[in-house]
Amino acid sequence: MDFDAWTVDLKSLSATHDSGFRLEIEGSAKDPSAVHPGKFPPGLNGIEQARLVRTGVEALAKAASKKPAAPKKPAYKAPANKPKRPVLSLKKRQPEDA
Fold first, then answer.
1. 60 touches 25 (CB < 8 A)
2. What is the rounded radius of gyration, in angstroms, for the C-alpha atoms of the chain?
3. 8 A C-beta contact, residue 14 and residue 38
4. How far is CA 18 from CA 2, 8, 31, 44, in A?
5. What does the pLDDT look like over 32-88, one tens digit per residue?
6. 10 CB contacts (<8 Å, ≥6 apart)?
7. Residues 37, 45, 8, 13, Cα dihedral to 10°
């Protein structure tokens, strides 16, 4: 069995293995708060089931890290039509004739 054969859907936070096994997560794809495995394929022992869940969660995290991050916008930008005002400063002025 190829444990790396996953189809990932980031919108529904789920991954489907080629064997038909489906895995859904809650929270972030990179750091899930809950994992909901579906029905396991017949004939898998406990170690193989755990490996299937682990590789499914890893496939979701890998797909989420490939997704480009949204560009960050500045918190506040002054409007372009706002007039410039003098700035109050606590620094002492230097003599101009020096």
1. yes
2. 27
3. no
4. 8, 11, 24, 14
5. 999 999 999 999 999 999 999 999 999 999 998 876 656 667 666 767 777 777 777
6. 29, 60, 63, 64, 67
7. 20
> For residue range 44-56, what is the model confidence (pLDDT) as tens digits?
999 999 999 999 9
Helices (H), the chain: 46-66
State both tokens at 72. Answer: 């960050």
Q: Please check whether residue 30 is in contact with residue 61, taking contact to mean a CB–CB distance below 8 angstroms.
A: yes
Tell me which H or E stretch contains 41. none
Distance between terminal CA atoms of the chain?
A: 82
